[in-house]
Amino acid sequence: MLELNHWKSSYSVGHWVLDNQHRVLLSLCADALDLMPEDLSEKPGHRFHHAQEELLSCIEEHFKTEERLLKQLGGSVYEHHRLEHQGFSRQLSNYLDQVDKGEIDRDSLQTFFVEWWTGHILNSDRAFSNAIQRIPKMTT
Ligand SMILES: [Fe+2]
Ligand SMILES: [Fe+2]
């Protein structure tokens, strides 16, 4: 099971830019969870909203970087992966809305993060690891 705050070499997709972005993203997910209210009746505070904004902007930047690389591989890989990213962004904004309304607790958001990143980084992203390492460095 993927741990959000403890990077392991087994998470690597073999590309240092993507690995660094993944590492930051996992840690930002852990920060957002830490800043969620303990009690569902409490509204998330400004520190949570700040963490949320940072997380969303890093996710957007990461998806753009990864999709730019995948585009160079051609074929259906890029389009399929782009749709996976899009689906995640939609799900994440639903989850964050629910956090704001006090409808989901920390455990549910944590499960969503762990399941999504496990499925995505460890399977979908790592699936293109070999191909992405063959892209000439100057173009990445
Ligand atoms: Fe991805
Ligand atoms: Fe990724």
Enumerate the distinct ligands: fe (ii) ion
CATH C-level name: Mainly Alpha
Structural class: mainly alpha
Order of helices and strands: HHHHH
Q: What's the Cα radius of gyration? A: 16 Å
Major sheet:
none
User: Helical percent range?
Assistant: over 70%
Characterize the overall form.
elongated
Describe the structure.
The protein has five helices and no strands. The protein is mainly alpha-helical and 140 residues long. It has a single domain, classed as Hemerythrin-like (Four Helix Bundle (Hemerythrin (Met), subunit A)), CATH 1.20.120. Helix 1 runs antiparallel to helix 2 and helix 2 packs antiparallel against helix 3. The protein is elongated. The model has no long low-confidence stretch (mean pLDDT 91). One fe (ii) ion binds next to helix 3 and helix 4.
List descriptors.
140 residues; Four Helix Bundle (Hemerythrin (Met), subunit A); 5 helices; single chain; 70% helix; binds fe (ii) ion; mainly alpha
What can be said about this structure in brief?
With 140 residues, the chain is mainly α. The chain is built from five helices and no strands. Helix content is 70%, strand content 0%.
